[in-house]
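HOLO CASE FILE
Compound: zinc ion
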Amino acid sequence: MAMKLVIKGVHVVPMGMSNAFLIEGDDGLTLIDAGFPGKEEVVFGAIRELGRSPDQIKHLIFTHGHPDHIGSAAAIVRKTGARTYLHPLDIPIAESGGPFRPIRAAPGLLGRVLCNLFFHPDERLEPVAIDQPLTAGEILPIAGGIEVIHIPGHCAGQVALLWRPGRMLFAGDVGSNVMGLGDPLGFESLQEGRASQRKLAGLSFDAAGFGHGKPIAREASKRFRNKWGKKQPL
Ligand SMILES: [Zn+2]
Ligand SMILES: [Zn+2]
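Model generated. Tokens follow.
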């Protein structure tokens, strides 16, 4: 799967079962999420496709500390020296390399199947040191401004990242867009997860990227509003 432009300045880097995103800013490259373990060469290949070199990744921001989002982080940092960012609730997990907090499958058969297939709380990864804890509501002075929105539920330390210049929301696993907008494979707290989906449905943005499934290039907040704007059944 090749890298694809989502909107001007943002590329999706498909890594098999999950996505990472590259933002091209005046201040270098910012990588959002780091895939399962062993995916670092996919990232470096994508960067070379842009005619750039891996050491131009200056920032590596994680939406949350699950194995499919931080798995290749240590290898990427080793090669690039990128500064790492994660919400404090997930920092101990990244820095120990697991184990992970258990999640319960999302409602429905598909959630149960996917959760059993892909989520193993006892998985161990190469630990990665986090340079900067993320704070809810802050705007990181990176690539023209990235707002941090805390969206627990799927994972207590999950954040969405709103890249202001391109009005693109990186939604992590608040939902997925595999067969249309839907739930992630599981939740630590379904109730908090629903509240986070509703919170994002109340924001205004044009494009959206997900940990899993296709990015949306335009009118994304309308799609969020239609799917999650009203109170959902638990
Ligand atoms: Zn996750
Ligand atoms: Zn994920």
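CASE NOTES: The chain has a mean pLDDT of 96. The radius of gyration is 16 Å.
CLOSED: yes
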